[in-house]
Amino acid sequence: MSTDNKSLKRIIDFRHEKLDAIKNSGINPFPYSFDRTDYADDVIKSYDPDSDKKQVSIAGRIVSMRKMGKASFTHLQDESGKIQLYIKRDDVGVDVYNNLFKNLDLGDIIGVTGYVFVTRTEEISVHAEFLTILSKNLRPLPNLKEKDGVAFNEYGDKELRYRHRYLDFIANPQNKIIFEQRATIISAMRSVLDSNGFLEVETPILQQIYGGASARPFKTFHNTLDESLYLRIADELYLKKLIIGGFEKVYELAKNFRNEGMDRSHNPEYTSLEFYQAYVDVYYMMDFTEMLIKTIAQKLNVDTVEFNSFKISLSKPFEKKSMFELLNNASGKSVDTMDRLGLYEYAKELKLEIDKKMNYGQLLDAIFEHLVEPTLINPTFVYDYPKAISPLAKGKRDGNQDIVERFELFIGCTEFANAFSELNDPIDQRQRLESQAKLREIGDEEAQNVDNDFIEAMECGMPPTGGVGIGVDRIVMLLTGQNSIKDVILFPAMRTEKEK
Which of 141, 164, 186 is a domain's end point? Predict the structure, then answer.
């Protein structure tokens, strides 16, 4: 056992001894409830120096202690903030002070009833008249200290914060604000869609055939059905079935799962918003998506954001540019006239990691990601994508069937949304998915499957439809100024911690 682990064990053993002492004095260290009537921040803000000893009842975690014989000071932290407590032996009682208070530690959760006053150092505090323990802390918290309102020995190691999020919030309560804002963002998404006549629905997470995106799935097994199932990579095909069934505006805030790499903008479990509307196209959805994001930003009173080291305005009109216009400008070449071989040679010239099996669309996408994406700082809708990487989108209406009606929204060099004029021709859809199946046969693990049930549904008649998918976690990153997806997911995926 390491020296650190031996020291930790001694601390835990000592706290168990204190726990036993509290129990032996007849006090239950884990009671069922406490009648709290006030919060720390409200007590401080509502303090009136002319009032006569206003009575309050508060509860929270001890985050600092100064034990001084017959009287002591502690700071209690609840979800609203911190407040100082003055604990005097003669006021809370000798037995409580000696048997309970002296056995308290940083991290213990307590309840206090008393009156509000101001100390000689002019700090609004609560003079305790009643003290009880609500939960004994047996494992020490991060070694946090504060002087003149500034924290040091801060619990700042990101991996520890992600792995032990509860300690992150105890030590860095300001980080809770991100997740309060996340809740506001999701609520605003729902509000916009609900007010525009969309119906929120729920579709299966466990699926016999995964589809709706190009990604590797997580696989599981259902004992009763005696068959393999997959965690969904997208909810697109089920939502389109609802459009076919007569629900003309639907949306889902869905947990999706993709068995792929992890980086600052990817987590294997993530939240997406997908919404579909009958009788509209991708261009209608482009305007709606811009309105949606701007409305959410207004809800948070956000006009300009700092994201990926860029200062970005969300109030100006979003730009709209074709993929080939951007590629030609960035490369100084006529990329739009290149065939697959030409793209392959150009990708090699750019020293990109490519595979000889990559098709025209995959090569074009790789070049775009390398040359163009790093330049897309201001909100930009990129439209006109190759059909080869867009098997669920309608061909461009001008007759160029190698191009589809699709957009992706980029902000701060990051993709936030993907949308189609949805393909509603079942014959074309089957041919495209069969082409995807052939790619799977030659080793493309992310190619899509042929979903016969979905095609049968399409054969019943699917109206013209516009559909959009938005990465909710990335929207939260954008609007809260975070550059890692792990900072906006409460419990991000982490490698299992090795035993110490």
Answer: 141
